[in-house]
Amino acid sequence: MKNLLLTKGFFPETLLRPTINYILHTQLPNGCIPWFTGGKADPWDHIEAAMGLTIGGEYDAAQRAYEWLMHEQLADGSWWANYLDDQPVDKDHRETNFIAYIATGIWHYFLVTGDIKFLLRFFPAVQKAIDFVLSYQAPTGEIYWAVAEDGSAKKDALVTASSSIYKSLECAILCAEQIGFNVNHWRSAHQKLGNTLRHHPEYFDRTWEPKTRFSMDWFYPILTGVVEGKAAQQRIESKWHTFVENNVGCRCVSDEPWVTVAESCELTLALLAAGEHAKAVNLFSWLHQFMDDDGGYWTGFNFRDQVIWPREKTTWTTGAILLAADALTEHTGAAHLFISTALINDNSDAQLHTEH
Known about the structure:
Elements: H1 13-26, H2 43-55, H3 59-72, E1 83-84, E2 87-88, E3 94-95, H4 96-100, H5 102-113, H6 116-134, E4 146-147, E5 153-154, H7 159-178, H8 184-199, H9 215-223, H10 229-243, E6 244-245, E7 249-250, E8 258-260, H11 261-273, H12 277-285, E9 300-302, E10 307-308, H13 315-329
Antiparallel strand pairs: 1-2, 3-4, 4-5, 6-7, 8-9, 9-10
Helix pairs in contact: 1-2, 1-13, 2-3, 2-5, 2-13, 3-5, 5-6, 5-7, 6-7, 7-8, 7-9, 9-10, 9-11, 11-12, 11-13
């Protein structure tokens, strides 16, 4: 197995250039970044891939990706869950964490480039998206996970999705502050969401089985700044052996022998956020074995059967690789985006209470 050990100041540009090019070559002329050639696109994964382009210095391509998003944004500020050939695959639901994620992508681009004109140009799209998402915040603080075509809320919430929105809200607030836009109502919503995530597990997974078998429920609150410090380290330790397969990566779910490269990358970022640097370097080093000859990374691996599954190399997986590599090497100005919080948080050391 080929391991890739990364350290501060040494971004493997030559090694990862084909990886950057993999996203670039999959991107459509209109800016959309599908999962793979001929595949669907969704707003969240499109943005993950766009951030990979930004890290790779492909600023024009990244801008085209955000232009496509702005072009497809509905009048109310939302996007459909999936697109194929610029048409929505279905209109049954719009996922709130997908919609909020534009704030993370736009702030990421600004951190890398310092391009204030870009920020000013795209902030109206961020504002519309965030206002749409916050209109589906429950009185108890959580964000409903999806919205039907008629605008009605699907009234339940996911820890992972609400955690993702928590980070996107932080990025939206920082975007607004950078251009002198008052968003105190966003700050209040952010604080309320954080409090609910930390102290009220009963407001999540009310109408379905708890998602605690999914690794993202374990580490996303750390990745997104909901849980920090000693509490984050304790949370990592509590399920490390449940989800992490030595020399392979992070399982998607605890009861299946399947690791995914993107979730392993996101766990790498969460480990850095928790101050577990050695674990982060080690985990990321295992993932290089899943790089294909064209620079793309396979989505997942079944370690029981020793087979790549599914047989696809997704652009969002490649984007996650670049985000983790950037964080480990501190290559760009956005290297700390997912490993530290830039808003004062009075409850940062509070443990997130979930069922185990």
